[in-house]
Amino acid sequence: MQYPQIALQQTVNSLTFVMPNAAKLTIDKVALLRESWLVGLPDDIVTEAAACASLRAIEDGTLVHARGDACDGFYTIASGAVRFTRATADGHTTIIAVLEPPNWFGELSIFDGLPRTHDGHAAGPTVLLFHARTDFKRLLARHPIIYERFARMLSLRLRATFDLVEEAATAPLTQRLARRLLELAQIEPSGMNAATIPRGREVPLTQEELGHLLGKSRQSVAKLLRSWEQEGLVRAHYGRVFIERPDALTRIAYPERVEPAAAQIKRNNVRPDNTLDG
Questions:
Q1: Which residue range(s) make up the domain with 105?
Q2: Contact 211, 220 (CB under 8 A)
Q3: Is residue 154 included in any domain, yes or no?
């Protein structure tokens, strides 16, 4: 595999990559960490973490790690995306999540010492900021506040997992598909993907992949997407779904957000029975 050229800038914390399509991409490691898992922490911690990390440019489809691999370290996505999958018993590949900058992954195997839980592949040309396992553990030992940060983040992901289990058992397909589309487009946060993009619109998955993600058939997903297309909510095209009306899709995904507001309006407009005129 050919790796892109790497040119050093004025500081070791910034590198320029010449990607395979000849586009130049400058990565500032400190800025990336400030937007990612070290957001809000002191500058000295961020600078130290940037100094012991390396940047890796990988091509589309490159395997970052496989299910069952021993933990080599911790990754932060600088550009591109990483798709996490798991093979089912019938040979299908189920997509668990698609992460984009400034998300991160790999901490679970560092903390519990067990092998990787999923396959991770680059989705398009991707640049990763890599902390070797020993360097990451050294950071944790020197700065316990990072432990506190990850304890909170892992707790949030566990809560999100409980929500997904409940959702799979009780929520209709319309609601579940709407939620996954909003999360994968980074319009709504999820347990795996805490970052959101205000102008997010695109979900880079086929209808079959969406079906595997939801445990439903491609036909069921396709039928629902066609219905939403007719209403102008989404547009499906060449293995991608474009969200045209995120506000309308959000009302389908999270009806509980609409109902309290409607109830509040009703309370404000209807007087109690004992209200006196005059």
A1: 1-143
A2: yes
A3: no
Q: Please name the amino acid found at residue 87.
A: A
Q: Indicate whether 1 and 126 sit together in one domain.
A: yes
CA distance 125 to 246: 27
Which residue from 33, 2, 29, 31 is spatially nearest to 18, judged by alpha carbons?
2
Which residues make beta-bridge pairs with 16?
7, 26
Determine contact, residues 186/100, Cβ cutoff 8 Å. yes
Is residue 14 within 8 Å of residue 78, measured between CB atoms?
no
**62, β-bridge pairs:** none
Q: What is the pLDDT of residues 226-242, one digit of tens each?
A: 999 999 999 998 888 99
Torsion sign (Cα): 151, 58, 195, 214? negative
Segment 81-98, tens digit of pLDDT: 999 988 877 777 778 888
Contact 225, 178 (CB under 8 A): no
Q: Which pTM does this prediction carry? A: 0.73
User: pLDDT tier at 198 (50, 70, 90 boundaries)?
Assistant: low
**Residue 196, domain CATH:** 1.10.10.10
- Per residue in 234-274, pLDDT (tens digit) is 999 888 899 999 999 999 999 987 655 545 545 555 444 44
CATH code assigned at 5: 2.60.120.10
| Same domain flag for 117 and 19 | yes
Residue identified by tokens 């399509």 is 21
State the Cα–Cα distance between residues 210 and 5, nearest whole angstrom.
35
Query: Do 129 and 85 sit in the same domain of this protein?
Result: yes
β-sheet bridge partners, residue 121: 63, 83
212, HSE (Cβ side, Cα atoms, 13 Å): 19
Nearest Cα to 132, choosing from 54, 44, 28, 78?
A: 54
- The β-bridge partners of 235 are 242
